[in-house]
Write a structure and sequence with these properties.
Blueprint (H helix, E strand, L loop, with lengths): L1 E7 L6 E8 L2 E5 L5 H9 L3 E6 L5 H4 L2 H7 L4 E5 L9 E3 L4 E5 L2 E7 L8 E5 L2 E5 L15 H12 L6 E4 L4 H11 L4 H8 L14 E2 H7 L8 H9 L6 H18 L1
Parallel strand pairs: 3-4, 4-5, 5-6, 10-11
Antiparallel strand pairs: 1-2, 2-3, 7-8, 8-9, 9-10, 11-12
Helix pairs in contact: 4-9, 5-6
């Protein structure tokens, strides 16, 4: 099986639409646009079997109607809580989606960015959309800090070697903030020194592994002593929700200033 990331909404949201394919059959994750996906499917002589949706935002679903028109037999899977009539099979945490015979994804409830957000996981791949970014995480857009912090801690418990595929390419900006938060983190310093982002070219590898994120992503490290100490000084209480909120607020302020 091959997983390829197709750039979408370049220059505004810098999305990746992930295409999973083998034996001329394909699945697509969070198609915010359609034209480049259809072009890729035709170029590779692929037939679209299904579409996986993680949450309701337009940059993850606006390509569905055109894809369904081009491939009417494709089935759309998405969160039980998402208000989108295109979703044909509604999912909640613990349920599974058989993509290919040897590739089955389990649904994880990962609310926080939005209340309806889910992720898709097996030990070969994590499709986490806007819950976890490369060196960062999504903003709070309707979810709660309690839910978001728990979702991140849930993802942190997954195996280190898991490749992860998020929905946006924000790595460089996220790493610049991460270094402000944890300047003495040697793994983080090395990651930033070796950074090589070629967006918006087609992506043929994962964004990284969870091991790298656990070592360098502040949003998987907000309860670690080196970061927790700073967050407590910024007024956080010693709870996951408060520590996460203080870090997320710090990142939001950083984004506004840069």
């Amino acid at each position: 099986m091959t997983i390829t990331g197709i750039p979408a909404l370049v220059g505004s949201y810098d999305n990746y639409i992930w295409v999973l394919y083998q034996n001329q059959e394909a699945w697509v994750v969070d198609p915010g646009e359609s034209q480049q996906v259809i072009a890729f499917l035709k170029q590779q002589n692929l037939t679209l079997q299904g579409i996986l949706v993680t949450h309701h935002h337009f940059d993850h679903v606006d390509g569905i109607p055109a894809l369904k028109q081009a491939y009417p037999k494709a089935t759309v899977y998405g969160p039980q809580k998402t208000d989108n009539a295109s979703i044909q099979v509604r999912l909640k945490g613990g349920e599974t989606v058989p993509i290919f015979n040897d590739f089955i994804l389990t649904v994880l409830d990962t609310p926080g960015h939005t209340p309806d957000h889910i992720s898709y996981y097996n030990e070969q791949a994590l499709f986490c959309a806007d819950t976890l970014f490369s060196a960062g995480c999504g903003r709070l857009l309707g979810g709660t800090v309690e839910a978001f912090s728990q979702s991140l801690l849930t993802l942190r418990e997954l195996p280190d070697e898991t490749p992860f595929y998020c929905a946006h390419e924000y790595t460089e900006d996220n790493l610049k903030f991460a270094i402000q938060v944890e300047p003495d983190n040697l793994e983080l310093q090395q990651r930033f020194a070796n950074l090589n982002v070629n967006y918006p070219t087609i992506k043929t590898t994962a964004l990284g592994t969870l091991k790298i994120e656990k070592e360098t992503n502040p949003f998987l490290r907000f309860d670690r002593p080196s970061i927790k100490e700073q967050l407590l000084k910024r007024g956080a209480q010693d709870t996951p929700a408060s520590l996460f909120k203080t870090l997320r607020d710090w990142k939001d302020q950083y984004d506004r200033q840069n």
